[in-house]
Design a protein that fits this description.
Elements lengths: L2 H17 L6 E6 L2 E7 L2 H4 L6 H13 L7 E7 L3 H10 L3 E6 L24 E3 L4 H21 L1
Helix pairs in contact: 1-5
Length: 154
């Protein structure tokens, strides 16, 4: 499979989030060409700050690998990771991150800054952004537009 095909799986996860009223962000982790973890945002459902798709996927992958080190893995996520998630990616030693839509307000792997390729850290990750960017971005745009419309009607 290629990056676009893996991103389609992350998009499917994002759609699951949207179906339950969560911000539609999905993530998967791939190891040796196999999807070992899937996740989507659960922040509204769980009411916990760290319930981002990336962090949930990292926790699941840790269980599968049996280690906190996720060397050899690639993380696919539909939205550019925030600073919290970028920090977790660094700490988990994921060597490659592929994301869909850029996040100019909170993105920390290219938009506002790039924590993952900062040579001041002892670990860095290769970053590839903009994979299926329109599909990922449109899903978020439509979600927030619909949310605003619903709030206007109340």
């Amino acid at each position: 499979m290629n990056d676009e095909q893996y991103m389609e799986i992350a998009i499917d996860q994002a759609k699951k989030a949207e179906q339950i009223g969560e911000v539609p962000i999905g993530a998967i982790i791939v190891y040796k060409h196999k999807v070992i973890a899937t996740a989507f945002n659960l922040r509204e459902s769980l009411q916990t700050t760290a319930s981002h798709a990336e962090l949930i996927a990292i926790d699941k992958a840790n269980e599968v690998i049996g280690s906190w080190r996720l060397e050899g893995c690639t993380l696919y996520v539909t939205l550019e990771p925030c600073p919290m998630c970028a920090g977790a990616i660094l700490q988990s030693r994921i060597p490659r991150v592929v994301f869909g839509a850029y996040d100019p307000k909170a993105g920390c792997v290219g938009s506002m800054m790039n924590l993952l390729e900062d040579d001041r850290f002892n670990h860095r990750a290769e970053v590839q952004g903009g994979i299926l960017e329109d599909a990922c971005g449109d899903m978020l745009t439509n979600f927030f537009r619909d949310l605003r419309e619903k709030r206007k009607k109340k």
